[in-house]
Specification:
By secondary structure, this protein is mainly α. The chain has ten helices and no strands.
Length: 268
């Protein structure tokens, strides 16, 4: 083997990593360039410079009083998603095990899917007391159908042949869940979390706009009242950053959990 080949081999992974990084950053770079170009020709209150937006983001991240508002919103998103996931998983198990419950709950959940988030906000304000409980109620009801149907689809998609083979070893319930059920439904569960993260970030802003005195949604309302587009964009980006980070963490978890799979079996 030549010395030239040995020199090129270590560089190949680095080149591939840089290529993936460039492809991943390209959409954001294009959007940023288009926004910056628009800021040069349009009024500042409509399209502020990205430099101004950057400094506003830095101000939010460096000020505990403002960053705590971001953390409050993140807490509300995660609490609502966790509540919806737990309730949805329980409902999914009942739907899969009973045709009667399936015939009752499935139409109800489908009906709930058609109710706009703003309607749930109005219902929560009329029915409930307490800001946090209202937002939790809204988050759960708006994301519950997606979690339930995703888990139902995962449970029903399990291979019967595989189930019969596993049952031939007479496993305990814990072993059955750990060996067969969890690996079969986990990909769909992670997908449901990825989808609902984006939905929840939009719903929580609506809930905070109407029924809260803090959080990203409340801060966006303050920016709207003074026509501060740079501030509005900076607060919006806080939620975007959270969703991107959370999605990346879920991808890392998925890669780690399913590392035993061949590369051809992993999601593209």
């Amino acid at each position: 083997m030549s010395e030239r080949t040995l020199e090129l081999r270590p560089a190949m992974p680095i080149t591939a990593s840089l290529g993936r990084l460039a492809r991943g950053a390209a959409p954001y770079v294009v959007m940023g360039v288009l926004w910056q170009v628009a800021s040069l020709f349009l009024p500042h209150f409509l399209f502020p410079s990205l430099v101004d937006v950057f400094w506003r983001c830095l101000d939010i991240l460096s000020s505990w009083a403002q960053f705590s508002e971001v953390l409050s919103t993140v807490y509300r998103i995660l609490a609502g998603l966790l509540g919806a996931f737990l309730v949805g998983s329980a409902l999914a198990l009942m739907i899969v095990r009973s045709k009667t419950l399936d015939g009752f709950f499935s139409p109800v959940l489908t009906f709930f899917q058609g109710i706009p988030a703003l309607s749930w906000v109005v219902f929560a304000i009329i029915w409930l007391h307490g800001t946090e409980f209202r937002i939790f109620f809204i988050m759960v009801l708006t994301t519950l159908p997606a979690f339930t149907f995703q888990v139902v689809g995962a449970l029903r998609g399990m291979s019967r042949d595989l189930a019969e083979m596993v049952m031939s070893f007479r496993p305990s319930r814990l072993q059955l869940f750990r060996v067969m059920i969890l690996p079969a439904i986990l990909p769909d569960i992670l997908t449901a979390w990825k989808v609902n993260l984006g939905n929840a970030s939009r719903v929580v802003v609506v809930a905070e706009l109407v029924g809260a005195t803090g959080g990203v949604g409340y801060e966006l309302l303050q920016q709207q009242q003074i026509f501060d587009m740079a501030g509005a964009l900076a607060w919006t980006l806080q939620l975007v950053f959270f969703v991107l980070i959370a999605q990346h963490l879920l991808t890392i978890i998925e890669t780690f959990v399913f590392r035993y799979r061949a590369k051809s079996e992993r999601s593209l």
